[in-house]
Amino acid sequence: MIRVILAEDQAMVRGALSALLKLESDLDVIGCAADGEEAWTLAARELPDVVVTDIEMPRLTGLELAQRIRDRGLACKVVILTTFARPGYLRRALEAGVSGYLLKDAPADQLAEALRKVHRGGRAIDPQLALEAWSGDDPLNDRERQVLRFAGEGMVAADIAEQLHLSQGTVRNYLSEAIGKLGVSNRIEAYRLARQKGWL
């Protein structure tokens, strides 16, 4: 049996996915989580074969969850299942050690087959996204990405500085660099463009 944990913040989607996967004789859904932190706790305790996670979730994103699973040395594979067909997300997912990246509108049997493939040590990546992923490079570094994400959520420089243990001047420099690299005129436009490209 392939032991699976599902991480999805929308209860209806989580329930539907669980029900679908339980129809497969070789897949066992051993736990479901409504956010990334809960998924991490479950994964660390249950040591599943595969964690299936959405990208955008409260407390810990799917990408951060994948990174933590890799950094802490858990043996489980991670498959991202998302509505976001953004090449930047796929690139960052692969950098975080993800083994699969599928879109939610894919057929249900494709997900089950992807989990089997990943469990055997392969990769399962949406082919169209794979082609697009290498067509545009992400110009932002990790700090610029962090600062821009907080700014896009409405935080001012002082709050961002406190959150990241930086000076306000440093935060403003990171924002200025991000705005310049993206060729826009302010932090909100920079945030929107970076999100649209999947760089945040």
UniProtKB/TrEMBL annotation:
Keywords: DNA-binding, Phosphoprotein. InterPro entries: CheY-like_superfamily, Sig_transdc_resp-reg_C-effctor, Sig_transdc_resp-reg_receiver, Tscrpt_reg_LuxR_C, WalR-like. Residues 3-119 form the Response regulatory domain. Residues 133-198 form the HTH luxR-type domain. Pfam families: GerE (PF00196), Response_reg (PF00072). PROSITE patterns: HTH_LUXR_2 (PS50043), RESPONSE_REGULATORY (PS50110). Signal peptide: none annotated. GO terms for molecular function: DNA binding. The keyword Acyltransferase does not apply. The modification 4-aspartylphosphate is found at D54. The keyword Membrane does not apply. Transmembrane segments: none annotated. CDD domains: LuxR_C_like, REC_DesR-like. One of its GO terms (biological process) is regulation of DNA-templated transcription. This is Response regulator transcription factor.
